[in-house]
Amino acid sequence: MNFLLTGANGFLGRTILDFFFKNGYKTSTLSRNKGSSYVKDIRYPFEFNGGEIFNAVVHIAGKAHVVPKTESEKHEFYQVNFEGTKNLCFALEKLNQLPKSFVYISTVAVYGIDEGDGITENRPLNGVSPYADSKIKAEHWLGGWASERKVNLTILRLPLIAGPNPPGNLGAMINGIRSGKYISISEANARKSVVWAADIAGIIPTLVEKEGTYNLTDGHHPTFGELEEAIASALKKRKPFKIPYWGAKVLALTGDVLGDRFPIDSMKLKKIISTLTFDDSKAKKELGWNPVSVLNKVAEIV
User: Fold this and answer.
1) Cα–Cα distance between 216 and 12 in angstroms, integer?
2) Least confidently predicted of 9-13, 97-101, 258-262
3) For the ranges 116-125, 137-146, 239-248, which has the lowest average pLDDT?
4) Distance (Å, rounded) from C-alpha 204 to C-alpha 121?
5) What residue ranges do the domains of the chain occupy?
6) Which of 6, 119, 218, 261 has a CA-to-CA distance to 21 between 20 and 30 Å?
7) Which residue has the higher pLDDT, 256 or 278?
8) CA gap 101, 247 in Å, rounded
9) Pairwise CA distance, residues 295 & 162, whole Å
10) Is 138 a residue whose pLDDT tops 90?
11) Which burial class, exposed, middle or buried, applies to 68 when counting CB atoms under 10 A from its CB (0-12, 13-18, 19+)?
12) Looking at residues 250-259, what average pLDDT do you find?
């Protein structure tokens, strides 16, 4: 099995690459970083160097974790996530043989919702942010491309990804608790779907013979309070200070006025207090998905 892995220098990409190497899978990497097998910028058309043959492609490379402030920054999401995906596929078409399988790493943001419980893959894709919309466009385009060329396409829609030294919101929570500057809001009982990065890596080799779209989660969907307490315990810190909802609302309204200079606004507050979980029963039934609970891995995260 010869894999091509894009985005191997990212948080999830490094985890998958490490898994491939440890399990003896031949792996070529593609990114803008020196040291990759192919140093390419997928925003622009490119070609591979020679007569490579890849049995499967795992496409992670993309733009995320940034709130665009300008039209140029919004355009960047489409240039990387949508046009970049097309450029990768066009480059694959120029090889002597197309891969048998294409695994696309997508996001639950495509559903475009901030609140809900047990969201399935059948939910309409209503994401409107540049990140979500660019991923939706890539998913749709890949569906047609793979069908026409008889390439097995698997789309993985992922929630918050956990692993050692995570980026994004989970990393910010850990840093806040470590520094003593994190504040817990009200009962902190809103549940959120998360998934362990190494579990994602472990399922990928089984996808080569599969097709379909799957949500992946840890199956537990911890509350904010459970995560906060587990992280504080692992760091040997006291539990975060709690403020009532009305206090958080006052802070959020202040953030609405001050903008990015303030750590919270009304939109962020709504997300914090709202449950948002996704149903991964399809993956369990069709892929044998058997995830670990992220709460049991917190000591490895911090």
Assistant:
1) 14
2) 258-262
3) 239-248
4) 18
5) 2-164+194-221+277-295
6) 218
7) 278
8) 51
9) 10
10) yes
11) middle
12) 85
- From the list 50, 42, 73, 12, the residue with the least C-alpha distance to 203 is 12
Cα separation, 241 vs 243, in Å, equals 7
- Domain over 2-164+194-221+277-295 is classified CATH 3.50.50.60: no
What is the pLDDT, as a whole number, of residue 101? 98
Which residue in the block uniquely carries the two structure tokens 């709460």? Answer: 295
Mean pLDDT of 69-98: 95
